[in-house]
Write a structure and sequence with these properties.
alpha+beta; three-stranded antiparallel sheet
């Protein structure tokens, strides 16, 4: 249900989980993976290799740190 999903999403955010992947019957049938970026809230449904590339790029950017501009 939506409430359960929202509650789980809040837990993932608090725990610092960067991405959540969704792989249900529809995704399997479509040969795709659902992916939610927990920092931005952006959700995509793309082939596995494209999803992996997005995650790798995002994790690399996060490991570089945040630039503060005043």
């Amino acid at each position: 249900t939506r409430v359960r999903s929202s509650a789980a999403s809040d837990v993932y955010k608090r725990q610092g989980v960067p991405y959540v992947l969704f792989l249900g019957d529809d995704e399997i049938a479509g040969n795709v993976v659902g992916c939610k970026d927990m920092a931005s809230g952006e959700q995509t449904t793309l082939p596995f290799d494209e999803t992996l590339a997005i995650i790798q790029k995002g994790l690399a950017q996060r490991s570089e740190g945040t630039v503060i501009v005043e």
